[in-house]
Design goal:
This protein is an all-alpha fold and 161 residues long. It is 62% helix and 0% strand.
């Protein structure tokens, strides 16, 4: 006998469900983009979300994740640079590590490039990389300037009093 899905699930698409129950709870666009990229298998590029697959099937779940990723990516690309900066800072501040540590790691590793969806065009990839790198360099420079000015030196500082 075929098992029926709850009525509420049948009334929504996988994309609507993903947005309502997950993406809408992530405050920054950049955070949504990182989350969606994290659902993509590094080896195959396939998107996987157990709950969504259980409710809507693997194909519909995969399509919803791909569509949401490219939509979120393009939404971030369309922001003015000032808004991108604020959104990126909001995301970075939500992490458990100090912002300056994350920014330095991202600049050294290029890990931020994993946020780009496979469906992004070459021009979109270049736009994202250019804006993100510029913002990261600006944030890194600001952190270095604060340290040089004596701000941000913790109790383990070798600075003489």
């Amino acid at each position: 006998m075929r098992q029926l899905k709850p009525k509420g699930v049948l009334e929504r698409s996988a994309g609507a469900d993903l947005f309502k129950h997950t993406l809408s709870r992530i405050p920054s666009i950049y955070g949504r983009m990182v989350y969606l990229a994290s659902l993509r298998d590094q080896n195959s590029g396939a998107y996987r979300h157990h709950g969504l697959s259980q409710a809507f099937g693997r194909d519909e779940s995969t399509k919803a994740l791909q569509a949401s990723h490219i939509k979120t990516f393009r939404e971030w690309l369309q922001l003015p640079l000032r808004d991108k900066s604020a959104d990126l800072i909001e995301y970075l501040e939500s992490l458990g590590d100090p912002r300056s540590v994350v920014v330095r790691h991202w600049l050294l590793s290029g890990v931020y490039l994993t946020c780009v969806p496979d469906a992004a065009s070459k021009a979109e990839r270049a736009h994202y990389a250019g804006d993100t790198e510029a913002l990261l360099h600006t944030l890194n420079h600001a952190a270095l300037t604060r340290v040089a000015a004596g701000d941000g030196l913790g109790p383990k500082s070798s600075r003489r009093k």
